[in-house]
């Protein structure tokens, strides 16, 4: 227990980085995932193909490789630099990689949601003169989102846990990396390990409960 | 076109064909709908009635031929098509009210988002229309809280809110419980009396007799017979039509 108390401030700061990564990736992946699903259901074949290619490539690539590619390929080789400060730069590189990766799962969850919306809804939308974009944003996606709130919650929970892979993108300030560094110097500690597990559960379990509750509340009655 | 344009038909179909794969669902259809006319399309299931109705606002594309609405060939896609659709109301068999929006929002969405009408004005007009179809008291409920007949009347109000030049009715009473059919038909008869141009795919003989100017009998993708309702129901010219009528009039 002593080690946990001794290293708690460091671990706490590390965990704060996990939370920051999670917030950025949640926002960015929901936006990007929505754009991707719009592409995948659009009437334009080129957009549909691009969306499908993106999802199939990104969803089937291990996250560690996505992050390593973001850091080594995009940042080091191709010169994508967000900040001159290395830690800040790697924070944004990892945020980007994690968002790009999670967006593929958000897209697929949403696409399942789109499939729950009856054909007649889109027909009625078109019949009153709404354009494709208007039908999608006003009629189809709002109903699709409501249908997949709980699955989106699961995607977000997975994403939060995936913030501990940030090391692969060269970001060493998050809690799992701090834990590993601590273990390397002091030896493994079960209390520290459990402490981090509890911290993650405190973050993810409410999301599970909240999205489950919200899904019931927001369900579209047909 | 003359200034009031009343002499030209509102809808003209010329040699329209449609194939669903190997199935030839519309065979060389030639049909006009005049302004203010109420046209009832009748015939056996699978005969192409609904498909015909849906080609007029291009919810169904056609394989060849020409459809002219209000002097213009139907646009194929994009903004021009959306504009055309905003001028042609449609009432579906399964109502298709927007499930996540209230009754009022269902009626105001088109005017506000498509026509750019101010929200207050759209609300006021929506309430007038809901009053007219007898649903004003339910304006803040969601579609699932209403009966089928009420939902269909809201769907009619939603179509009317766009001030359409015509309304298409695709089997508007087929999904309704029997006791709710009349309330919907009454609204439709009212519209017909007010001079709305209507194309109605239906099996409701009573409606056809009360409100239609003309009946078109369709079977196997073709228009088999066209006549006034009285002539058609009492003195059908073709065997196909007589056969169909004998089946539906006996029960």
TrEMBL record, chain A:
Transmembrane segments: 20-41, 53-71, 91-110, 192-215
Primary location recorded for the protein, binned into one broad class: membrane
Sample GO molecular function, one term: transmembrane transporter activity
Keyword vocabulary terms for this entry: Amino-acid transport, Cell membrane, Membrane, Transmembrane, Transmembrane helix, Transport
Membrane topology per record: Multi-pass membrane protein
Annotated GO biological process: amino acid transport
Domain ABC transmembrane type-1: 15-211
Compartment(s): Cell membrane
Keyword Transmembrane attributed: yes
GO annotations of cellular component type: ATP-binding cassette (ABC) transporter complex
Family annotation (PROSITE patterns): ABC_TM1 (PS50928)
Database matches in Gene3D superfamilies: MetI-like (1.10.3720.10)
Family: Belongs to the binding-protein-dependent transport system permease family. HisMQ subfamily.
Name of this protein: Glutamate ABC transporter permease
Protein source organism: [Actinomadura] parvosata subsp. kistnae
TrEMBL record, chain B:
SUPFAM superfamilies attached to this UniProt entry: P-loop containing nucleoside triphosphate hydrolases
Entry annotated with the keyword Electron transport: no
GO molecular function: ATP binding; ATP hydrolysis activity; ATPase-coupled polar amino acid-transporter activity
Keywords: Amino-acid transport, ATP-binding, Cell membrane, Membrane, Nucleotide-binding, Transport
Any one Pfam family match given in the protein's UniProt record, by short name: ABC_tran
Membrane topology listed for this record: Peripheral membrane protein
GO CC terms: plasma membrane
Major location (coarse): membrane
Gene3D superfamilies (alphabetical): P-loop containing nucleotide triphosphate hydrolases
Catalytic activity: a polar amino acid(out) + ATP + H2O = a polar amino acid(in) + ADP + phosphate + H(+)
InterPro entries attached to this UniProt entry: AAA+_ATPase (IPR003593), ABC_ATPase_HisP-typ (IPR030679), ABC_transporter-like_ATP-bd (IPR003439), ABC_transporter-like_CS (IPR017871), MetN_ABC_transporter-like (IPR050086), P-loop_NTPase (IPR027417)
Catalytic EC class: translocase
Subcellular location: Cell membrane
PANTHER family per the UniProt record, alphabetical: AMINO ACID IMPORT ATP-BINDING PROTEIN, GLUTAMATE_ASPARTATE IMPORT ATP-BINDING PROTEIN GLTL
Protein name: ABC-type polar-amino-acid transporter
Species the sequence originates in: [Actinomadura] parvosata subsp. kistnae
